[in-house]
Amino acid sequence: MRRQWRDGVGKLAVLGAEGGVRVPLEIASSYRARTRGLLGRESVEGALLLSPANSVHTVGMRIPIDVAYLDRRMRVVAVRTMKPGRIGLPRLRARHVLEAEAGAMAGWGLRVGGQVVVEVEGEAEAEAEGV
User: Which residues contact 97 (CB under 8 A, 6 or more apart)?
Assistant: First the structure.
């Protein structure tokens, strides 16, 4: 069964990091919210999850961002830092994309092969098929 979120807020747990890291999370699942993304923002508190998504762009953004591409089991398949005005290539295995201020993901210990969990409304939910 595929997990589908609604636009809203929650927490992102980065597994495997020293003691585990939890950061504020915004969820953008509607077409409108995904299209708006981080456009026009001067900063980001925590991260933004775009779902479904397999690519992003930074055209019109004011700040550089870290981008993590996640597969359907919420494992990181790629992490990139993008400057404003760039277009990212689609990642074939990606089903979700995390965005944060440049440098934030390294501080969280988020890297390729890592696992994340999305916690919505106080209820921790592993966002993987069959989990």
Answer: 49, 50, 51, 53, 54, 55, 56, 67, 68, 69, 70
Cα(70)–Cα(53) distance, integer angstroms:
9
Cβ-contact 47, 67 below 8 angstroms: no
Q: Provide the pairing of β-strand 47-50 with 21-28.
A: parallel
Predicted TM-score of the model (pTM): 0.86
Task: Quick: pLDDT tens for 3-60.
Answer: 678 899 999 999 875 667 999 999 999 999 888 888 878 888 999 999 999 999 999 8
Separation between Cα atoms, residue 128 and residue 23, nearest integer Å: 19
- CA quadruple 62, 65, 69, 73: dihedral, nearest 10: -110
H/E stretch holding 120: strand 115-120
Q: Which contiguous run of DSSP H or E holds residue 108? A: helix 104-108
Give tens-digit pLDDT for 63-97. Answer: 999 999 999 999 999 999 999 999 999 999 999 99
